[in-house]
Design brief:
By secondary structure, this protein is of the alpha+beta class. It contains 7 helices and 14 strands. The chain has a 4-stranded antiparallel β-sheet with strand order 1-14-5-2. It has a 4-stranded mixed β-sheet with strand order 12-11-10-13. Strand 8 and strand 9 form a beta hairpin. It binds calcium ion (CA).
Length: 386
Amino acid sequence: MKLFNHHTPLLLLFGCTIALAGCSPSSRHVDHTPSAPSLVVHTPSTELAKDTLVESAPRALNTPDANAIDPAKQISQPDSQPLLENMVQIPEGWFTMGQEEFSDALPKRRIWVDCFWMDATEVTNEQFAHFVDQTGYVTLAERPIDPVQFPNLKASQLEPGSIVFTPSEGPVSLDNHTQWWQWVKGASWKHPEGPKSSIEGRERHPVLQVAWADAVAYATWAGKLLPTEAQWERAARGGFDQKEFCWGDDKPGTPRWQANIWQGSFPDSNSRADGYVAAAPVGSFPSNAYGLFDMSGNVWEWCADWYRPDAYFLKELRNPKGPDSSHDPAEPGTPKRVQRGGSYLCSDVYCRRYVPGGRGKQDVESATNHVGFRCVVLIETKHANQ
Ligand SMILES: [Ca+2]
């Protein structure tokens, strides 16, 4: 999904126009779990850690040194939680990746994904707060804008902030995101809707207002990775190969709501038929067949892959990691990573991409209050008697 990025307030301030697109507006299983396996954990690769620095740091608007976390802590693991706690093992196997209704999710291909573990839920505010407490990490949305890059801005215009969904007062055309997205000074993961909001009492809600680099920083600290797009879709489908939804073929709400999405008139009136107007506490809806919660709706989830609309033409069919670089014809030159799963703003009226094959794209510097993430761990299983 493409919305705004950390530069957006500046563009708006100067009256520039930017192209806004978005949310489509944008097995057979082999049980690989031997008895009494020993787990060899693949710690985050140096390649990914470097990638974060190379691709994201130059675009950060503050002074990188002021926000760098201790490298020693980046590769350490949380001090009290076993690595695989609250994670689900996803069996190795082939699955059909892609979905006909989205041009950037074609051609459909048979893809092999090795066994891996995935967080059962999206990363919560409580978990992210622990990470911040341990590392002192400062998210992109909390960082002031670099006056060196924007020397003509007044001091008040350099203050940090982020993008917040703001319902319109009435029905509007769906071709202009600025009617429901606003830059809010002081919005951050601690204040997802702006400085007057807080995460108190929302400890079990997914963390919001995190840019791609923020998600990678958390994952690296936790000894985990962001999922590849193939891992994410393999997990989301829960073994229902080529089904429309993560849970099979039943339409949402028939007979029950299996995901936190939007009901009513978008973006002005949410009927709350599924019980939630905004993000719900993780695990509020039924899990899929693999035991994963909120793989559809609630919040978009960052993936590791660069976004390209032609990514599915790549020849790699086993554990694909996606293209080497980003390209979005709608906004050339803006580096974007893939997001998956859709959010509480998705529906069949606007943004159908809450289905398992739907792809999202977003500027790596963007943070909003409907984007979060979850992590994976790669393992090798060895029989105890081997
Ligand atoms: Ca909802």
